[in-house]
Amino acid sequence: MWKQKIGISIGNNYAIPTTEVIKLIRNIGFDAISPEWSEKVDMKELVETAKACGLFVQSLHAPFHNADKLWDNDVSVSTPAKNELLSSLDTCIKFNIPILVVHTWIGFDYKFSAEALNFKTFDEIVEYAKQNNVKIAFENTEGEEYLFALMEHFKNNDTVGFCWDSGHEMCYNHSQDLLAKLGDRLIMTHINDNLGISRFDGKIDWTDDLHLLPFDGVADWDYNIQRLKNSRSMDILNFELNITSKPDRHENDIYRQMTLELYFTEAYKRACKIAYKYS
Predict the structure, then answer these.
(1) pLDDT tens-digit profile of 191-217?
(2) Distance (Å, rounded) from C-alpha 84 to C-alpha 9?
(3) Among 47, 111, 144, 170, which residue has the fewest nearby CB atoms (within 10 Å)?
(4) Where are the strands (E) in 186-277, listed by range?
């Protein structure tokens, strides 16, 4: 779109090589991609393919399965998690990717204590990022208390910003208005849709995190777009979507029936609709 650039997050498990997916995404009309880091992926090949196509690599998603361990006081626990995250940060540095998206917690059964928080690992990560001109975008997931604590801890550090995941806000954060809290520090978006929290007791579960195409769930997009307009201005709106359904769920199954060309085209159409209203 000529007024508003749009990007899309990409994974590593497509039916065709990811480099071919990148070319397809560019041909469809997207302006940027945000890959997911993996030690098994040739990031050099992905970045070079994107640049050859004229795509901007907006961000890189750090590994998150050990996010809770980053807080651990036992260095034998926190150090492997830190080193994995630093490997993804080194990829950003090597290939001039400006933003690393980082989860601040993983897990649904926890007891949060502000007094017991250990910021040491995060201090090291943010300082290393600052020295190398990479921004850290902390993302809202479950355990938003950890996100809030980090954003407060780094409130005077312009290396740290906020990655707003619209779907996580609905199914993990009980639809609290996170852009009202952190919109002035917004540097990255993960725009997607879902059906909210499915359990009547309000307990959250990872299978509700569907990452549907916008307008396939229950999100109020006029409300979301207005909140985005009231937040820090974004040069690129990024969409993080999922072709595959969660276990024992079938909401995304219809996407699997599409060719990749049709799926990403449909994603582009929905993204353009949001970008048009945003711009």
Answers:
(1) 999 999 999 999 999 999 999 999 999
(2) 20
(3) 111
(4) 186-190, 236-239
